[in-house]
């Protein structure tokens, strides 16, 4: 019989299928003890430019352990004992030696199966692997691109109702041909069930990107596919490419049905052509679901657009019509995933960019600014009543969410897309930058003393 998932698991990037990055579960870490946590640095044979996931009390390596799982930029997936930092097992994809140290990478965070017996991880050859928690062996491996040297699995993987949901983007330099697409895999068999291509979207199959007349439209936001757990609808945003509201959907926020077959709603700014021409991707971050149909969509143009989805369901193109446009925390590119906390009747949103961190509440269909500072950060996390924001220049800051009061800055090294998870009296945070192409890295684990 499958074990029922503990409330203390952290099974994916962003905590839940909707990527809220917020949990009210107690963590054992409080405003009173956060500054006294003890740090362990675990050496890894690869850089983890993403986040860890965590399963509590699972059978692995011949015993019962609390385990962190991470995937390195070159596709090694490691199971790490949360108690002492020992590596319990590692999975190395068969092509590892051919791309280790090269520009061919992945920055996708893995996701756990609902059974807690398997996890799913990406590799630079454009494949998703199903790995057994018990020993790391591969159950199946499925390619989600026909051109992995041009199409990268950058965004974190998601899981919903027995399906794995993933997306593709491109590499630095936007070298054609490539295109962003969403895929749905059967978690049991690895069968490729559905494909939605953001360019040449009339072709519902995995295509050679050179066979499409357009290139680009990367899906590369850290959260990747964001899933509404009520409807199963799949939300994501695309990068620079042609938009025609028909078969080409560059620089757009899209909602697909749960099968990734039909568009149920969409949005692109009125200046979509300008955004594409000046490399100001709308899709530098994924949609943040605020409730009541409201979606916050950031971008590389230094703004966050509040858009209401769901007023009408269908594929009719929507250009413009934002409810509101606000500045990112410092008015610079937003590359991170906002955190969304539903606190009773109040919805909070927290976001960080390279030059600041800020908080808003959603009130009357409008974002109301509550506080901001000049401390840059990656994707924020709310856990146990505290706000955690990693500074890629080094240091993990911990705040009181409602006021922005700084409670502690925990010492750690520099990074890139990395973000923390907080669970069972521990914080786990990888260090390092995928663009440095290293085959070594560090996982920081802080514990309550």
Question: Can you describe what's shown?
Answer:
The protein has 449 residues and is mainly beta. The protein has a domain at 22-29 and 44-335: 8 Propeller (Methanol Dehydrogenase, Chain A), CATH 2.140.10.10. The chain has helices at 96-99, 272-277; strands at 22-23, 38-44, 53-60, 63-71, 77-81, 87-91, 111-112, 118-123, 127-132, 138-143, 158-160, 163-167, 181-186, 192-197, 226-227, 234-237, 253-256, 263-267, 288-291, 294-297, 303-308, 324-327, 339-343, 346-353, 356-363, 366-373, 381-383, 386-390, 396-399, 406-410, 421-423, 426-431, 441-447. The strands form eight sheets. The chain has a five-stranded mixed β-sheet, with no helix packed on it. The protein has a four-stranded antiparallel β-sheet with strand order 2-33-32-31, with no helix packed on it. The chain has a four-stranded antiparallel β-sheet with strand order 3-4-5-6, with no helix packed on it. A hairpin with a 2-residue loop joins strand 19 and strand 20 (294-297).
């Amino acid at each position: 019989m499958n074990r029922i998932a503990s409330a203390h698991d952290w099974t994916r990037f962003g905590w839940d299928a909707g990527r809220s990055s917020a949990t009210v579960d107690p963590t054992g870490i409080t405003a009173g003890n956060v500054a006294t946590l003890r740090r362990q640095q675990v050496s890894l044979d690869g850089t983890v430019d993403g986040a860890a996931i965590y399963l509590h009390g699972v059978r692995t390596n011949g015993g019962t352990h609390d385990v962190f799982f991470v995937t390195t930029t070159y596709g090694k997936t490691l199971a790490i004992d949360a108690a002492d930092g020992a590596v319990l097992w590692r999975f190395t994809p068969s092509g590892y030696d051919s791309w280790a140290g090269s520009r061919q990478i992945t920055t996708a965070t893995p996701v756990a199966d609902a059974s807690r017996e398997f996890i799913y991880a990406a590799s630079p050859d454009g494949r998703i692997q199903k790995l057994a928690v018990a020993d790391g062996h591969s159950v199946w491996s499925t390619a989600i691109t026909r051109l992995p040297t041009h199409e990268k699995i950058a965004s974190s993987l998601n899981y919903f109702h027995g399906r794995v949901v993933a997306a593709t983007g491109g590499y630095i330099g936007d070298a054609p041909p490539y295109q962003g697409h969403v895929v749905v895999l059967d978690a049991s068999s690895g069968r490729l069930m559905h494909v939605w291509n953001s360019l040449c979207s009339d072709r519902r199959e995995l295509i050679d990107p050179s066979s499409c007349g357009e290139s680009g439209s990367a899906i590369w936001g850290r959260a990747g596919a964001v899933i509404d757990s009520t409807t199963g609808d799949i939300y994501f945003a695309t990068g620079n490419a042609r938009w025609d509201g028909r078969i080409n959907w560059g620089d757009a926020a899209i909602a697909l049905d749960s099968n990734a077959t039909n568009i149920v709603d969409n949005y692109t700014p009125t200046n979509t052509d300008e955004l594409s021409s000046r490399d100001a991707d709308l899709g530098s971050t994924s949609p943040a679901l605020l409730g009541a149909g409201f979606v916050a969509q950031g971008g590389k143009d230094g703004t966050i657009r509040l858009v209401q989805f769901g007023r009408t369901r269908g594929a009719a193109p929507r250009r413009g019509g934002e409810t509101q446009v606000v500045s990112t925390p410092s008015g610079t590119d937003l590359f991170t995933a906002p955190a969304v906390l539903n606190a009773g009747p109040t919805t909070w949103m927290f976001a960080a960019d390279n030059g600041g961190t800020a908080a808003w509440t959603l009130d009357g269909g409008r974002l109301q600014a509550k506080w901001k500072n000049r401390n840059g950060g990656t994707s924020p996390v709310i856990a146990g009543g505290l706000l955690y924001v990693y500074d890629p220049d080094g240091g993990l800051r911990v705040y009181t969410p409602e006021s922005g009061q700084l409670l502690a800055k925990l010492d750690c090294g520099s990074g890139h897309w990395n973000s923390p998870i907080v669970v069972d009296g521990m914080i786990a945070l990888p260090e390092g930058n995928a663009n440095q192409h290293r085959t070594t890295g560090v996982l920081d684990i802080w514990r309550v003393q």
